[in-house]
Amino acid sequence: MTQEPLTHTVKEDDAGNRLDRLLAKAFPALSRTRLKALIESGAVCSGERTITDASYRVKPGETLTTLVPEAAPATVVAQDIPLDIRYEDDDLLVVDKPAGMVVHPAPGNPDRTLVNALLAHCGSSLSGIGGVRRPGIVHRIDKDTSGLLVVAKNDAAHAGLAAQFEQHTIDREYIAVAWGIPAPGAGTIEGNIGRNPKNRKKMAVVPPPRGKTATTHFEVTRRLGLNASVLRCRLETGRTHQIRVHCAHIGHSIVGDPLYGGRNPGRRARLTPDCAAAVRLFSRQALHAHVIGFDHPVSGEKIHLVSELPNDIKFLIDTFSATVA
């Protein structure tokens, strides 16, 4: 089944442009990648002639017709899982993800993910990403990291958000509880991040040209005695496990981090029995996606959202704070 054909007549000023670029300009709701796929599949015609070359140079006065099929149903099953939606409109939504929820189905986590929940929540409001009726996951946060995540509902929103992430104009701020107190109390951590050559399940700071450039800005916002501190971390880039890897790299790994915490820094700290118990019972890295801000990719509206710390991190901070004279 197809939607109503999209038609566009080439103006004099557009003569000689590439077909895919012209159509992307004429139909901004469709990404250039999606349009290229449609062209190559034979969905674009000029009169009676089918054009399958995305680099075809258009001619003034010719009328281009594009047949866009209905978005195919997602292969991932929709599951009715409660979500904390902080913002939603026809183009996107922002969800406050709880710790323990995986973003996307993968081996070991085939269902009960954020994507499963979003398919059930959004239903027919999803117009399709790349021709498939699914939510557009523009960025991810780790399973055991809580906080804000923006999701696209259509190609236009997906392309617009992806461009902002690529240009590093998305405001992303995290709150972390780290071992020790970084000195100085504010700064920038820079170091390429790539796969750890000794453990492929981990990332690591690696020398160029290996890995991808990564920059994290941090500030100590609260000292928790001599043993730990609360950090505000702002991402300039968004690499896998970036904050966790960078904090461990400067010797201040995140409390509870099972991958990058080393040989349990808490054992070396002089913890009170209450603090030791709180750390022992804390079952994840103490990291929370606290702020997200961006320009709405369709309306241009400034979106700025804040998620308060979840109770488990609050309890951890309060327990450490109680020991400070």
Explain the overall architecture.
The protein is α+β, with helices and mostly antiparallel strands and 325 residues long. It folds into 3 domains: 6-66, Structural Genomics Hypothetical 15.5 Kd Protein In mrcA-pckA Intergenic Region, Chain A (Roll), CATH 3.10.290; 72-166, Pseudouridine synthase, CATH 3.30.2350.10; 171-321, 2-Layer Sandwich (Pseudouridine synthase), CATH 3.30.2350.10. It has 8 helices and 18 strands. The strands form 4 sheets. Strands 6, 7, 9, 10, 11, 12, 15, 16, 17 and 18 form a 10-stranded mixed beta sheet that branches. A hairpin with a 6-residue loop joins strand 17 and strand 18. The N and C termini lie far apart (70 Å).
List the keywords.
4-stranded antiparallel β-sheet; Structural Genomics Hypothetical 15.5 Kd Protein In mrcA-pckA Intergenic Region, Chain A; alpha+beta; Pseudouridine synthase; single chain; 325 residues
In short:
The protein is built from eight helices and 18 strands. The protein is of the alpha+beta class.
